[in-house]
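Weekly modeling sync, notes
Attendees: S.R. (lead), two postdocs, one rotation student

Agenda item 3: backlog of single-chain predictions. S.R. asked that every request posted to the team notebook include the full sequence so nobody has to chase files. The rotation student volunteered to paste the first one in as an example of the format we agreed on. Action items at the bottom.

Example entry:
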Amino acid sequence: MASEISGRVQRLNWYDLGPFTVFDVETTGMSPVGDRIVELAALRIDKDGSEKEFHTLVNPGRTIPPGVVAVHHITDKMVIDAPHFSTAGKMFTDFAAGSTLVAHNARFDLGFLQESLARCGLPLWEGKTIDSIRLLKKTHPGLPCYKLQSLRFYFKLDSDDSM
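Predicted structure, as returned to the notebook:
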C-alpha cells in the first residue's frame, strides 16, 4: 500500500491541483476605483497540463497618462478600437471559469478585476486566488527581492525584453 501511495505522489504534477489561470493586468494608474484596466492577459493551465492563452487590450474610455505609457508602453492609439471592459471582463471570466486565479501581487490585479466587474454590473470573481509573492515567500524565504525581474534572475529564467 505504501508503494502504491508513493507511486501516486510521484506522478502528481503541480497542474493536477488546477486548473489555474495565471493573469496580469495593465492599468491607467494605481487606484482600482479611479483608474481603469487597459490590458488583460492570462495563461490557463488545465489539469492535464494543456495551456490556453487569453489576451486583449481594453479601451479604458479615457486617456492613458504619459507616465503610465512609459511603464507599460500601451498608448491611447493602441486601445482606441479595443473592447471596453464590459466585453473584455466577460470574456476573461468565461476563460478563467472553474480555475484558481494566480497573480504576482494578487491584491493589485484582483482589486482592479473586481472593481471593474462591479462597475460594469458583471458578477464578481468568487473563485480561489493565489498570490505568487506570498507563495514564493513561503517556499523561498529570505530572497532579497520578490519583484518579477529579480526572480527571473534568481531562477535563471530566460528574459523577454517585451515585458
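Discussion: group reviewed the output briefly. Residues 30 and 108 are 8 Å apart (CA to CA).
Action items: rotation student to repeat for the remaining queue; S.R. to check formatting next week.
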